[in-house]
ATP-dependent DNA helicase RecG (Zoogloea dura), 711 residues
Amino acid sequence: MSPPQVPAAVSVEPVAEAGAVAPAATAPPKKPAARGWPGVGPQLAERLAKIDVFSAADLILHLPLRYEDETHLTLLADVRPGMPAQCEVEVLSCEVTLRPRRQLVARAADASGEVMLRFVHFYPNQQKQLAVGARLRIFGELRDGFFGAEMIHPRVRPVNAGEPLPESLTPIYPTTAGLAQSALRKLVAGAMRHNALRDELPDELRRRLNLPALPDALRLLHAPPPSVSALDIEDRGHPAWQRIKLDELLAQQISLRRAYAARRAKNAPSLPPRERLTRDLLEQLPFALTGAQSRAFAEIAGDLASDHPMQRLLQGDVGSGKTCVAALAMLQAAENGRQAVLMAPTEILAEQHYRKLAVWLAPLGIEVAWLSGSRRKKEREATLARLASGETLLAVGTHALIEDPVALPLLALAVVDEQHRFGVRQRLALREKGQAGESPHMLMMSATPIPRTLAMSYYADLDVSVLDELPPGRTPIVTKLIKDERRDEVIQRVRDACLQGRQAYWVCPLIEESEALQLKTAQESYEMLSEALPELKIGLVHGRLKNDEKSATMAAFVANEVQVLVATTVIEVGVDVPNASLMVIEHAERFGLAQLHQLRGRVGRGVHESVCILLFAQPLSQTGRERLKAIYEHTDGFVIAREDLRIRGPGEFIGARQSGVPLLRYADLEEDAALVDIARGLAEDILRDMPRVADAVTARWFGGRAALLKA
Ligand code: ADP
Ligand code: MG
């Protein structure tokens, strides 16, 4: 069997921030070249490929967007403006006019009135169709034109008098230039006729779910019987649609589970808990693990002991203490004499992890290597040599870790922080660093909580541990919404907080259209605050600073030599300075909800009461208002993620741009959550008991697009 195809659902284009991630590694997958199949030549195949149809089987699953009702005729006099209607008319005159531009204009009539038919683009044979005296069925919307009632580009079909009307609705398919509805309709009908359609799901199961058989559902949607109205089946809650969506979700769940199984089947170094270094760290930490951290680490420790690779996602809200769990996992590798790495998406974050690990691990006598783009060549080479010889077991870095010269011969565990910021390929590259014939254990970490339905669908190929508890002693963050005009009062608050020994973040507005403008604004905020707060030391970090400048400023902020840190969203992820208790976000209305939540999570990390001030400018858009309301009302990342999903819809939530592959064509993870549940359970049963069914279902949905889904 060929390896299962994993839909590239969890790959996210790396953000351009800080130039820390290599964009080249995530080029979109190429479409396969279109080849014809019986009845479809190469040129037609080329066009069909544009609508993701690569085979007759794909045609069968190419379902109508909507329907047109040509089952009856309307008299011209009875047509309501704006409502599509079909009329039967006779052509009275037809000419090509040149003013105001070249167009084909015909006058036609039925017993009740007259209509002008107007075509701005037309072919010579259309002109022939519209010969005087021709009888036509026209379908379109009537509007009031300069010369009375007119239809622009109606669909036209010459008929003989008394020709019977179709008995069922006419399907309208998604199509592309050069591929007419009528041609596509014929192709689909042909494919339906010439291909044996079967429902592989056992009858009993289908009856229990109260769904039609797949062939019946397909026939109903492609060629609805006369009894069915467009309204019925355009609503995707119709049982026929439910059956299709269930099939699609099944295919998705099955391929994800298979990908998981295939990865689990690989060999990995077994790293049983030796309770030496891990115990030393636990004794050495200035705090006790939370219950959630202990549970998560126990799950991870169990996985690491296995000789199959761990595939685990550690989800936890900002500040839930993921780093420390990662450190324990890395030590379990080290106490087995093997290497472990921690990869983070930005230089700032990687450096911070490095510092934290170095502090925690120095008393244990464990060295941590630091790899980033900014290390000087000589230091870098020395570090590389120690990693290559296996002398150094632990390393922290940016994507610099996966670059070619980095040899990690003993690699047994790779931890990826903020995993959604890396592309699939980057994670693959990391996986390939280990010994030949061995896959390292993988621990992905994410602070972007994914709502349950999405997680089930997108992470079906991962095991999940959740940190659902924050370390104790955190004071809740107070969130305030303040109008932009009251900025002076806010500056005063910054002064007060800093004079009491606290520190503050000042986050500059996001300007998506222009990085240059964004930098200018950051610079201006920095100057404005330096002037307004002469008694304080102000620092500035943004994505365009050199790495050593950035880390010098961050270090000064950590040491409280800088009290106010003016920053762009480079600080969005991971920055941890417990003494900072005040955060101001300018133009908060421009930020996404997840981003606001991440930013706010930078405060509330110490014992001091923390405040997050969201400055906003009016007028607010509807979604801007909804986002601010959500961030004001909620602090739980999971609740916020749900709100985000509600406001934006799942497509944008996961980020359509990230995969380039429309993973689900018909099912909607939110709307069809109940079906997702069913599909998930069914996928397990089918994989266990009916492998042939599993093959048929995945081949049907992903077969033709295998190359696209491989990424
Ligand atoms: P995140 O999950 O957002 O990555 P971090 O790992 O950065 O969170 O942890 C946030 C802060 O909480 C750090 O300062 C860390 O040292 C501290 N921390 C972690 N676990 C605990 C704990 N069990 N008790 C107290 N503080 C903790
Ligand atoms: Mg973190």
About this structure: Residues 239-264 form the longest helix (26 residues). The first strand starts at residue 66 and ends at 68. The CA atoms of residues 204 and 492 lie 70 Å apart. The two ends are 19 Å apart (CA to CA).
